[in-house]
Amino acid sequence: MNNKQKKVLYRIIACSVMMIGLHFAPIDGILQLALYLTAYIIIGHDILLKSWKGIRNGQVFDENFLMAVATIGAFILAIYDQTGDYEEGIAVMLFYQIGELFQSYAVGRSRRNISDLMDIRPDYANMEIDGKLEQVDPDEVEIGSIIIVQPGEKVPIDGIVREGRASLNTSALTGESLPREVEEGDEIISGCINMTGVLKIETTKEFGESTVSKILELVENASSNKSKSEEFIARFARWYTPFVCYSALVLAILPPLFNILALNSAPEFDVWIYRALTFLVISCPCALVISIPLSFFAGLGGASAEGVLVKGSNFLETLANVKYVVFDKTGTLTEGSFEVDGVHHNEIEDKKLLEYAAHAECASSHPISHSLQRAYGKNIDRNRVTDIREIGGHGIIAKVDGIEVAAGNKKLMDKLEIPCEECHSIGTIVHVSIEGKYAGHIVIADKIKKNSKIAISDLKKSGVKDTIMLTGDAKKVADKVAGELGIDTVYSELLPADKVTKVEELIAKKNEDEKLAFVGDGINDAPVLSRADIGIAMGAMGSDAAIEAADVVLMDDDPAKIAKAIRISRKCIGIVKQNTYFAIGVKFSCLVLGAVGIANMWYAIFADVGVMVLAVLNAIRALYVKNV
In the chain, which end has fewer C-beta atoms inside a 10 angstrom radius, N or C? Predict the structure, then answer.
């Protein structure tokens, strides 16, 4: 509990003690009024001040104004009737403050889940300068620099481990409690905490482009993307509050005038003013205005604790309606860590074919290029390579030692009108031609992620109608992966532009209230991520472009988190609907009872503060998603 919450709690206790004491104290008259007013000022001075500031700034109609008018009016009526019953006015303010304290605590709990992520921000990076370890600003570290991360320190910038091995605590990023082991050659992302050995890391990004910076940016911007429910509540409160204020005024004036003019009886102004004040307290929209945004905020916090970053409550709302999930294959359902599995139909020796292919592909960042370079096993001399041309969805043509080498799929060979051999092995086939003649092909295999099959199964259990895979791979490779995972529909041999077209076709076929999600990780997935109803990117090893274009980021690249994200969003939306129906139902029922004189101030306190507390407690449930 922070200092502000403690002060409110002390005021609540002080006011409660005074009310109990005054209830039994044998005093009346001016002294009684002065003591009750003191208790009222103790508990309500901040509400009165906010109400006055609102009036002065032309923003009259809010919950502070309603509380101020209702409670001051209750005091005036008690003085007018000379009943000495000042407790109702104080009780309204007291219970309102209790409700506000609950709300503040709930926001603090949900904010803590998100603010825990802010602890991943590194304060410094260690660099070895003149034989000494010096702390420098992470912003000053250039790409390719060697930084040193000691046990207990945060990894400040993305990079590759060049020396050492260690266990990393990634829980702040991924929600995963098990440590991750890294050693020389492994990629490492910023935001992790080094638990054991000393690591020397070669940076691959600037601090501003590293994972930790991207995450913090996403977290800071998440609250600005409002859901339709939140926008509705904001619009609702703008016209609802003035409406009930004028309605209360009508309730206080018209019935007494009717009594005088039509019935020729006593006006009973005090009775109808009391009902109008009760009406005002009941009508306060706190439960809706507070609990709906809080439910979404708690949902975002709960999701982030599980390693799922949702960029705003509007995306949380969309995620709840996902019925179709479209996957990229490489790096999303598979590891993306390709290994050369064989060299077939080669006209030259294996090593020479790999040498030509690895050099031709040296400028590419695709995992296939990395696998060719690993299989070649020697340093790539880029000075040997000239005239590199990359043909999207086909492959690469380059000159190696002045010899033209083409490396790519069958489409590339067809484009170059070079007859190629069919391969019956399952995997990605890289056909290679040298000086316009077919030289053989290289078989590259990719491993399926361990949780991919579980991910597809969980999605179907979660009510997803259709799982679809889009890939540029050959049909037999795509069919094999889809068959192993249980994917419903597969489209293979697609160019990046074809993926966008296919997603647009799928969107056109579905019902308007059903949403389509696309899951990807590569630069070429960015257009599809933007085009889908909701884009989901792999955050640990996904490209910056994919993370930027996506609406949801999975921090540990685990596809099984997709079904969990959908279930979290549905739980959150369910809580929002419960709070909306409950609050509006109770409010309007009590408003009618208050207008006809059945509900008194104590009913009003329940209708306002009681409903708000119950709604806030219900909203907090959105935080607890571990077992969703």
Answer: N
